[in-house]
Amino acid sequence: MKRIPLFLAIVAVLFSGLLSACAGPAPSPVVIKETVPPVIQTVQVVATPVPKTQLVYNSYAGDPEPRKADIELVNMFKQKNPNVEVTHSIVAHEDFKQAIRAYLTSSTPPDVMTWFAGNRARFFIDMGTIMDISDVWQKEGWDKTYPKGFKALSTVNGKQYFVPTSYYWWAVYYHKPTFQKYGLQPPKTWDEFLAVCETLKSKGVTPIAIGTKAPWTAAGWFDYLNMRVNGPDFHINLMLGKEKYDDPRVKKTFQYWKLLLDKGYFIDNAASYAWQEVIPFMVQGKAAMYLMGQFIMDSVPKENQKDFDFFRFPIIDPSMPIGEDAPTDGYFAAAKAPHPEQAKQFLAFLGSKDAQTYIAKTLNRVPTRTDVDPSIFAPETLKGIELIKGADYVAQFYDRDTTPEMAEKGMAAFQEFWANTNKIDSILAQLEKDRAQIFASQQ
Amino acid sequence: MLRSNARKFQNGLLYTLVLALTLGWLLPLLAALVTAVRTNDEILARGFWSLPQRVTLGNLAEAWSRGGLARYLPNSFIITLPALAGTLLLSSLAAYALARFRFPGDRLILYTFVAGMMLPFQILLLPVFRLVDALHLYDTYWALIIFHTAFQLGFCTFVLRNYMRTVPGEILEAARIDGCSEWGIYSRIMMPLSLPALAAIATLEFTWIFNDFLWALVLLQRDALKPVTAGLATLQGQYIMDWTVIVAGSLEAALPTVVVFILLQRYFIQGLTLGAVKG
Amino acid sequence: MARIALGRRRTGHRINLVPYLFVAVPLLMFLVWVIGPMFYSFYLSLTSWDGVSPPRFIGLRNYARLLEDPIFFTSLANNLKWLLSFITVPVALGLGLGLVLNRKLPGARLIKAAFYSPYILSLIVVGLIWGWMYHPAGGLINSTLMALGLKSLAKGWLSDARLATWCIIVAALWRQVGYVMILYLAGLQSVDPSLLDAGKVDGCNAWQQFWHIILPLLQPVTVVVVVISIIDSLRAFDLVFVMTRGGPYNSSSVMANFMYIEAFNNYKMGYGAAIATVLFLISAVFIYAYLSRMFANELEY
Predict the structure, then answer these.
(1) Parallel, antiparallel or unpaired: strands A163-167 and A366-367
(2) Does B65 lie in the same domain as B21?
């Protein structure tokens, strides 16, 4: 009968399926080659008399350069602590922002995670999902080696929850060869900036590149325009919910923004591009400037990096104090971490001088510790430090200064404005409604 | 004479239209195949319709190794096959009872299964997430295997029950008279007779469970466990600048279902029609 | 039917435990994992819950908040667009293709396969391939338009708030048409050819044949197709998630997507459950319609 073989085949397939499920996830002992870093690595270290312990570390270092640095950091840790077996997961940066929400609400979160300082960390700390590491701060004596500002950033209700390890600046990056080709100088004032844009546009070059698929890039423009037009004090109060979005001063900021958009200085269809996708346009000379954080250099091909430089966002109102965005990144541990001892060990390492020196050297971020030898800094880093030193106020960035919920609404509003520059009033009215509702429920 | 000529012309026109539509329908897949073997720089610089200067298998290799498909594809099988076995087995039990017995509550139970298969999944999302976490099954294969087994019971029970009703009662009666136990009737008579339906549903369910995305997204966390659907979403984030790798990965991920489809097309279609059209 | 006597009650009825034994495990699993969770979601919709601390009962406040949420109305409107698209295009095209391909045409088998092959692809694969096609630089559509010299027609597609939803729907339809076509083909197979011949003898032309004989005979299939299409359009999530995440600025959001973001992004799980409940209530209307039709058919047996 034909039926029997078919029947047996089905049974065989199903049976093998059951067997494979019982076997569990296939272990993948991966040999790490320097040039081909895999996404996941589970590394078995040569046995020592000390019993093996575990550590689970999830990171958002998805882009190529940070990924390599992240893997090397873990290697450095393992060399110092050979008895710790590290399960290291690297998730793409944007996806991590989503994934961490699942990590922290599950009953088996990862031990240590990368994250952002400011309100974004506070959000999780307030939920009780982050481990109190005041003891690590004390044990490592970080009061002496971390500036007060960074400790304050990591403290909630007198306890420390966060290890801030690096920060970076935002600036207008530009493609030097393109500027040279048209005889342009980095603009210092708003009028100079507009003139540069007009020249570029008349030559068929897109003045300003941006990818707003993930909307935080547009928030950068809001931050800077608002701080330049209305001053950092107003901006921070707005972030804290103490000012209204339909205030005429906010509208004024949007008018400046509208000017740039209506003149066509921004790249077309910005919302279709992920932020990294427009960098090739700059390299090809089709676009010239990009308001972005220093990490833009992580995604610029190595051979083109020398062609990129940056300048301070132009001054609009010389009477206003200068505000700059210098977001701080770092790490924290889950409150329900399965391996709390190892988590604290790892955090202590990440906040150590060696780790910070390595990151400063490799990725050109600015270390938060005061005892890192400044002679290792690249000229770019020194210039960035000067930029920040020249500021009267340093903010964390839109989505770290205000609450995550407000940031979501705000960024969606920026995207909507980008596509409809005529709807400033209705967009701001709705945004103000959101702000009132969000900050009211917080009181 | 004129009429049949006109008809031939009409038919010819219609056929040409259908052919054109077919080609258009296949265009996305054909274009994807072409994109997967070209380099991203070339497409960005010169557009899709430029003559390829380089044809490369590199994207496929990249998606497989660093993209992680080498990990994700086996995971898909590890999740799909046991769930398939489980749901077929359990639904055949329920279907047998519902098809060949009248008992208090049989209507209600049948409607429960049918309603369950039509529910929007979102209504289950949060409680299942909680339940899985409470059972310490979060971020394990078993979470997905158990859930898929349970959720697909609705459709499978419904279809198998309809099919089993068409089996002539005399065969079963004869077995009973011969002293066969109910379990014996089920396992040695009903199940072999239901093989066509089982094969049809198995093919269909394999595709559905294999292609699930939402539950893998919600119930799994570790990259090492992700099936190919969730893995592709991760790939999308990782190769954000490189569409050729993303497309190549998508095609690789689709391969198992395509193979199953080509080999078992007949059963696949039977499964679809069994489930929808009542004969 | 034979019954296994397990004892007699005073009234003389015999309880047959056999079907219950067979149905016990599957039914239990189904209740625990499908039906139970559904009711728990209803309860959750009446609470405020962040996923970490215990849920807090707040009555109907989530629903009140929904009525003031512009994203809710955008999502509803989009689901309506999905629904209308799903019950018109696949039905018309699927039926048409079914009619044409029901005859013995050269290559009919391959043509049919071409149309329903998209259905075997996972929605992620569909979303990624179409996402690439819609890419403004280097994607198939804009590349083709530029090659044809129609640069003005090249749009941002998925980044254009007015077009995004429709672009996603087109991808969904591409996948759905083949499925509906198969159902109609099966239905057409069961149409008795003698009925058609009778019609020809009576002098009916092709259009009359179609309208008065074939279409009414296909009514059962059409009903099933419409119900399934409506339910699938309400459940739509995967494509929106992969292609736009509901953007730009929530313009392509659908209820399923909206619920996911509120629950898993914003930790508003009670609010998310309320959205899911609304989605369920809308679907319930059609589920009920399907069930009552099934009930009526059962009675015919």
Answers:
(1) antiparallel
(2) no
C-alpha distance from residue A255 to each of A291, A361, A425, B204 (Å): 18, 41, 11, 56
Q: Which among C114, C225, C290 has CB closest to B25?
A: C114
Six token digits for residue C68: 């003031």
For residue B3, the enclosing domain spans: 1-34
- CATH fit for domain C42-294, picks 1.10.1040.10, 3.20.20.140, 1.10.3720.10, 1.20.1250.20: 1.10.3720.10
DSSP code of residue C64: H
B189 touches chain C (CB under 8 A): no
User: DSSP letters along A179-214, please?
Assistant: HHHTT-----BHHHHHHHHHHHHHTT-EEE----SS
CB atoms under 10 Å from CB of A148, counted, come to 8
- Identify which of A25, A93, A107 has the shortest CB distance to residue B224: A25
Both tokens of C182, joined, read: 């198969």
**CB-nearest partner of A40 from B75, B224, B238:** B224
Asked if the structure places residue B54 within a domain, the reply is no
B109 & B5 share domain: no
CA distance B5 to C257: 54
Q: How far apart are CA B101 and CA C123, in angstroms?
A: 39
As for how many domains chain B has, the answer is: 2
Question: How many CB pairs below 8 A link A and C?
Answer: 61
Report DSSP letters for A12-48, one per residue: HHHHHHHHHHHH-SPP--PPPPSS---SEEE-PPPP-
What residues does each domain of chain C span? 42-294
Residue B190: inside a domain, yes or no?
A: no
Residues in B touching A3 (Cβ below 8 Å): 192, 195
Between helix B153-164 and helix B141-151 the angle, nearest 10°, is: 40
Q: For chain B, how many helices (H) and strands (E)?
A: 16, 0
pLDDT of residue A35: 35
Q: Do A268 and C156 touch (CB under 8 A)?
A: yes
Q: Across the interface, which of B66, B85, B202 has its CB nearest the CB of A38?
A: B66
Three-state secondary-structure class, residue A338: coil
Q: Are A404 and A119 in contact (CB under 8 A)?
A: yes
- Check A98 against C158: CB less than 8 A apart: no
Give C122→chain B minimum CA distance, Å. Answer: 5
Structural domain includes residue B15: yes
| Residue A102 near chain B (CB below 8 Å) | yes
- Pairing of the two strands A53-59 and A84-90: parallel
Question: How far away is chain C from the Cα of B90, in angstroms, using its nearest Cα?
Answer: 5
Contact residues on chain A for B222, CB-CB shorter than 8 A = 89
Which amino acid, one-letter code, is at B181?
S
| B28 and B76 in a common domain | no
For range C26-46, the mean pLDDT:
95
Residue B201: CB atoms within 10 Å: 28
**Residue B140: strand, helix, or coil:** coil
Residue B149 lies in a domain: yes
pLDDT (0 to 100) of residue C6: 45
Would you call C294 and B114 a contact, using CB atoms and an 8 Å cutoff?
yes
- Cβ neighbours around B195 below 10 Å, total: 16
Helix (H, G, I), strand (E, B) or coil at B202: helix
Pair C118, C182: CB distance under 8 Å: no
pLDDT of B104 > 80? The answer is: yes
Question: What are the tens digits of pLDDT across the range A323-357?
Answer: 999 999 999 999 999 999 999 999 999 999 999 99
- What confidence tens digit (pLDDT) does each residue in A376-429 have? 999 999 999 999 989 999 999 999 999 888 998 999 999 999 999 999 999 999
